[in-house]
Amino acid sequence: MSRFLLCFLVSALFAEEASLTLPPAAKDHLPKGWKVLEVTSTDLNADGLADLVFVREEDDPKKIVKRLPANDGVRNYNPRVLVVLLAEANGYRKLGDYAKLIPPAFDDEREYCDDRFDGIMGEKGVLTVGFRYWTSAGSGWSSLEKYMFRLELGRLRLIGSELDVWHRSSEERFLVSTNHLTGKVKRTTGLNHFDEAKSKPEFAWSSLPSRKPIYIEDLPPCAREP
User: Where are the alpha helices (DSSP H) in the chain?
Assistant: First the structure.
């Protein structure tokens, strides 16, 4: 990772009140009227240069509606786009814009749900996109999900996913870990979300019905139904 980009990411992390910005060489990839919501970096194509991944959100006040009771009365319908830039000697080249994967902060069909986007992370050439599910009405179940992507022949391929699900009342918890390269799925049940000492884990293995490659542009919002 370049010294400039490292300093930029550290500064962005600790400047709580400041808006996130992109490195100067990448600013042309942020359209007017949009803001940076999340940013991360990793070497996706193994060329020794730090590539850049960010989520942009439209900054249109007309798409923010204040109406109770859900979501503290703020309904933000501004769309979000995941942008992947590959670093080159003189700047960045766009690999792609992915508009389906990350939904707006508010969804009328999930009126009592929290914002489902849970950040992005780049590490060792792998991009991880996180989602969460928490609702104040209608269900006691909550979850955290992570989807991992690796660059393959110019496309970001889904290589793995992790699902952590728990119930706020019964304390029941289970985990699902999927390797989309081998097609193997590991399910862990018998867990207690609030007291690990009460957990009696049981493990079960299964296989995906298909090992056909899944790419990031093919996934629906939150990657729930590949």
Answer: 3-14
